[in-house]
Every structure is written in C-alpha cells, then in structure tokens.
Design a protein that fits this description.
Layout (H helix, E strand, L loop, with lengths): L2 E8 L24 H6 E8 L7 H14 L5 E6 L14 H4 L4 E4 L4 H11 L2 H6 L7 E6 L3 H8 L8 E6 L11 E5 L5
Parallel strand pairs: 1-2, 1-7, 2-3, 3-4, 4-5, 5-6
Length: 188
C-alpha cells in the first residue's frame, strides 16, 4: 500500500481557525519524520501552519531535497489557505516551485483568501503553472464558503488539473492506515 506522509513543516499561518486540526493535538508530540519514513514514502504532503508563509527559497529547498535524496517519492503536494500565494509581484516567482510539485491544495478561509484566489484564477500565467501535465490540484471548500465560490466561479474556468471538493470541519483528525502525520525535527 502506498505510504503517504503529511509533513508538518511550520507553525506560521495567517488564520486561527477554531476547528483547525492542528489544535486537536500537541504538535510538539507528533512523531518526527525519519529517513526510514522518507524511504517508504510514495507521497509527501507539506503542511503546517501554511508552508507558503516560508520564504520561497526555504520551500523550494525542502521540495528539492525531497526530490534529490528520496527518488521513491512520486508525489509532493503543498497545502495552503492561499493567503500567501499572491503578494504583490511575487506569484510569478512560484513558477520554479510549481515545476517541482505534483500539485497544491488550497482551502480558502476568509474573504482575503478568496479575493487573492479570485485574482490568481484570472491570471493566464498562474493557470498555466497549475495546468502542467501530471499536476493534480484541489480546491477545498468548507460548508460556509460555497456562496463565495459560486460567485467567483462564474468568471473563472479551472483547468482540468483542478478538483473542487467540499470539506467539513471535523472535531477529530484521523488518517487512514497508510497515511501518517509527522513533523520536521525543527520547524521553520
């Protein structure tokens, strides 16, 4: 069975969601990922906080190291609220990163996240970056956000590399048997 590792890499996040899965347990008590874990991994999902709060070079370095040292890792995904995807003039710098990952999973949490996502989804360059062959991106929409998505989606056509998935806030975070929630030994 393919092993999937949700790798917590940073506490940094622009939200304080009341039912965030990161509030359900003590992050410092999560198992630290090992070389053995990485040698078994088929998929690594970078999470946090929000990995896009890291400096671009830090995030690219993490992805590059996983790709260089662990050839068995077939897929790398990054989870984000989308808040940091658009900073004035910075989104064009994500091109290098997007060439190294299998996709991004965006879960907007507030109007600011949706506003940024709406802007990005209207940028041909951004859509092109996320529509590369083999990419698999997900837009997670929580119950209270469907009206916002319906408004935005009238003006946007997502590439086929995107899936729109409904989500609910869960009071428990349980992973399937082949998925593991782990952390870096030192967080960014």
């Amino acid at each position: 069975m393919e092993q999937i590792y949700h790798l917590y890499i940073t506490h940094k996040c622009g939200h304080k969601c009341p039912l965030c899965c990161n509030r359900l347990y003590d992050i410092d008590k999560l198992p630290v990922i090992t070389v053995e874990d990485l040698n078994q991994a088929h998929t690594v999902c970078l999470t946090g906080g929000d990995p896009f709060y890291l400096l671009r070079e830090e995030l690219i370095s993490i992805v590059d190291r996983l790709r260089i040292h662990y050839k068995n890792i077939q897929r790398i995904y990054i989870y984000t609220s989308g808040k940091m995807l658009w900073i004035e003039g910075a989104y064009s710098h994500w091109h290098e990163l997007m060439q190294s990952v299998s996709g991004i999973n965006v879960a907007p949490k507030d109007y600011g996240d949706w506003d940024r996502l709406d802007y990005l989804l209207q940028q041909p360059k951004w859509l092109e970056m996320t529509a590369q062959p083999g990419m698999s991106n997900r837009l997670y929409i929580f119950d209270d956000q469907w009206n916002t998505w319906e408004t935005i989606s009238k003006d946007v056509t997502l590439p086929q590399t995107w899936q729109v998935i409904g989500r609910k806030w869960d009071k428990e975070f349980n992973t399937p048997e082949n998925e593991h929630f782990v952390r870096l030994p030192i967080l960014y």
